[in-house]
From TrEMBL:
This is Permease. The keyword Cell division does not apply. It comes from the Bacteria. Keywords: Membrane, Transmembrane, Transmembrane helix. The keyword Transmembrane applies. The chain crosses the membrane at residues 20-45, 57-81, 93-117, 129-150.
């Protein structure tokens, strides 16, 4: 069985440690900060304390930071890989696709935090929407990581045992 890696893993493994920091560490640290502070905010219902301020700051930064990643990778990876037919199978497409789809909940969270989304919602409604965005991001990020760590050859029919 040929051992190759998905473009997702290749991106993280190349240009060490910078790509790992830029494309994984910063977004994950921001997302984990949001997730952990979100739990304390939800349980304590303290919508104005220091944790809420940290949560809001991380939420604003995460969405716009990841939007930059999305645009950069779409232009420099997705389009060229698609045009040249260099995807390494379905696991590769799923990993990159789910990774980039993280822009939807993260940017949604940022737009919620700056008041462009959910303007007519109550504070509790905004809190629910915020928690939903966190949950969606955690799911898509973990799907991306799981498929990204697979060898693309796992799903190739020519290598499967019949």
């Amino acid at each position: 069985m040929e051992m190759t890696m998905t473009h997702y893993m290749e991106l993280l493994a190349t240009n060490q440690p910078w790509n790992l920091l830029i494309f994984m560490a910063v977004p994950v640290i921001l997302a984990e900060t949001i997730a952990v502070t979100e739990l304390f905010i939800l349980f304590g219902r303290n919508l104005s304390g220091g944790l809420r301020k940290l949560n809001k700051f991380a939420g604003i930064i995460a969405g716009f930071y990841f939007l930059g990643i999305f645009v950069y990778l779409f232009i420099n990876a997705v389009i060229p890989l698609t045009v040249s037919g260099q995807w390494r199978g379905i696991a590769d497409v799923i990993a990159v696709g789910f990774y980039l789809s993280g822009v939807i909940p993260l940017l949604g969270m940022s737009l919620l935090e700056i008041g462009l989304l959910g303007r007519h919602k109550t504070e509790e409604g905004k809190l629910k929407l915020h928690a939903t965005f966190v949950a969606i991001f955690l799911v898509v990020a973990h799907v991306a990581m799981i498929f990204g760590m697979l060898s693309p050859s796992v799903f190739q029919l020519s290598h499967m045992q019949m």
